[in-house]
Amino acid sequence: MEIKDILSPDCTSCAVQGTSKKRILEVISQIAAERLGDIDQTAVLTSLLNREKLGSTGIGNGIALPHGRLQGLEKVIAILITCKPSIEFDAIDNGPVDIFFAILVPEDQAQGHLQTLATIATKLSDKEVVKSLRKADNDEQLYKVIVS
């Protein structure tokens, strides 16, 4: 699986104004609902919030991987956003987060979900990729960095 298989340019947003964990998850939900059309923004947000209740998806180094399963979703989709300034997200290193790579998977694809998370985590462990994501000035640059 390649990131471009699950992330489209219209699901990439640079320098979002985020004020809280919930607000960022609302933005992610709105982008996803616009992209999916037939899945409600509230359903996406509920899925993401339910996962966060199990423990923060903030993996450290200013990065979070919010994810959730959705009934009615046919294939995995991703949303990538950066926010300025960074926000508190209860990350494992207690640091603020400014890069959010969200993944939504069909309810019945748990195994694919884990492989997708592993692929993304590997990409985001590259310090140069992360530095370039933070330098991106627009949505197109952000998309190009993550799929390159």
UniProtKB/TrEMBL annotation:
<dbReference type="InterPro" id="IPR002178">
    <property type="entry name" value="PTS_EIIA_type-2_dom"/>
</dbReference>
<feature type="domain" description="PTS EIIA type-2">
    <location>
        <begin position="5"/>
        <end position="148"/>
    </location>
</feature>
<protein>
    <submittedName>
        <fullName>PTS IIA-like nitrogen regulatory protein PtsN</fullName>
    </submittedName>
</protein>
<dbReference type="Pfam" id="PF00359">
    <property type="entry name" value="PTS_EIIA_2"/>
</dbReference>
<dbReference type="InterPro" id="IPR016152">
    <property type="entry name" value="PTrfase/Anion_transptr"/>
</dbReference>
<dbReference type="InterPro" id="IPR006320">
    <property type="entry name" value="PTS_Nitro_regul"/>
</dbReference>
<dbReference type="InterPro" id="IPR051541">
    <property type="entry name" value="PTS_SugarTrans_NitroReg"/>
</dbReference>
